[in-house]
DNA sequence: AAGTTTATTGACTCGTCAATCAACAAAAAA
DNA sequence: TTTTTTGTTGATTGACGAGTCAATAAACTT
């Protein structure tokens, strides 16, 4: 059976399975066996390719962050003008995909992981810097020297709105989430001269 | 040795120890034995009083929420005028106590817990409603019919700013956190008539 | 053809841990 | 003073889990 070149395939399957299992459990309390089983292989093979469970978590985190990055980039590609760019970032941040069980579980647990695992904290910092830079690109033409402060506020607001949206009972309302952030944005832009 | 009336004392010690251990581990991956040891008793006694680890977690969560509620109430007691009330809520939300390792660990992990444990979600919802109501009391005189939307935005912003502040490298800067939220508040209030 | 690299797993090690139980001790009630 | 209630723990159970290892097999190299 052993075909060569399985490594990337197996790794990809494990990463996906890791995210799914974290979403199912709602926590990092998932076993390597569970992950491996979902990915269709033995737990020994999972250890063979990743060495440890923590490596699997970090690979999963990188993947989630990559997906999100791709979503933002995709939205930005068709965006026109500063407002369009800002809106694109919001659309990507509150896209349906980010409200799927797996994504929610991933984000919440990666925040927890970042407390104690330096590499997790680093990855999160990279994502935040990229988000900030994207926001800044849209804000500078509109808000001038206030752009920096606004980008910080917007970034935090995005995380906060996301958090509340995923933790509330009932289905998340991404339109409402975008509206809250847009309201902030518009008010800040109007009050720019003050 | 057995003095009577130990139950509340033991339970309180266990709750405190649970929070400390969650802070130390940065996750809910703490054993009943660890908690019991820190609280100065056997793990069997911990089970005797709480029945299960999950009950200990929930009791710890209630305690953290109670502390936070008390802090807000204390700050509100000396606050004057709507602006003063809003400021008091911010002060309490970003007080040094909330940036202690134990508090950070508690909040992050309670968010995770809320995904899967209904009682945890309920407790979080109670806290959010109370926060909203406190914000609303300060906002209504200043923002009239926009108070509702602003309270939602402010609540989310508080959570988001807290999250970023605790996850960034280096010591948290509560003054900066308050400033970001105040900026949002002031801009929204100025733009009220628009 | 012999040797090497890659793929794969069942079985195993060594450890942990939540929860239970039997037993003991002291105070309160009867 | 017997009995019941409350406090307390060491020992145990029963289960699970991360990571290792030896063994098997296919493919690629020489």
From TrEMBL, chains A, B:
Pathway: Amine and polyamine biosynthesis; betaine biosynthesis via choline pathway [regulation]
Source species of the chain: Fuscibacter oryzae
DNA-binding annotation, residue ranges on this chain: 31-50
NCBIfam families referenced in this protein's UniProt entry, alphabetically: betaine_BetI, PRK00767.1
Keyword terms: DNA-binding, Repressor, Transcription, Transcription regulation
Alphabetized HAMAP family for the sequence: HTH_type_BetI
Primary role: Repressor involved in choline regulation of the bet genes.
Domain of life: Bacteria
GO MF term list: DNA-binding transcription factor activity; transcription cis-regulatory region binding
Protein name: HTH-type transcriptional regulator BetI
An individual GO BP term: negative regulation of DNA-templated transcription
Taxonomic lineage: Bacteria, Pseudomonadati, Pseudomonadota, Alphaproteobacteria, Rhodobacterales
Residues in HTH tetR-type domain copies: 8-68
Tagged with keyword Kinase: no
């Amino acid at each position: 059976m052993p075909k060569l070149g399985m490594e990337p395939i197996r790794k990809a399957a494990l990463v996906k399975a890791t995210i799914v299992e974290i979403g199912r459990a709602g926590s990092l309390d998932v076993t390597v066996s569970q992950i491996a089983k979902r990915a269709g292989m033995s737990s020994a093979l999972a250890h063979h390719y990743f060495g440890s469970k923590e490596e699997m978590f970090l690979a999963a985190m990188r993947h989630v962050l990559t997906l999100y990055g791709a979503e933002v980039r995709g939205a930005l590609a068709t965006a026109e003008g500063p407002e369009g760019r800002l809106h694109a970032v919001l659309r990507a941040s509150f896209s349906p995909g980010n409200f799927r069980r797996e994504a929610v579980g991933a984000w919440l647990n990666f925040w927890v992981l970042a407390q104690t695992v330096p590499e997790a904290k680093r990855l999160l910092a990279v994502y935040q810097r990229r988000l900030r830079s994207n926001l800044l690109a849209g804000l500078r033409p509109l808000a001038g020297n206030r752009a920096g402060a606004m980008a910080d506020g917007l970034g935090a607001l995005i995380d906060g709105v996301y958090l509340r949206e995923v933790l509330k009972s009932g289905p998340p309302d991404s339109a409402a989430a975008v509206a809250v952030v847009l309201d902030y944005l518009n008010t800040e832009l109007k009050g720019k001269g003050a």
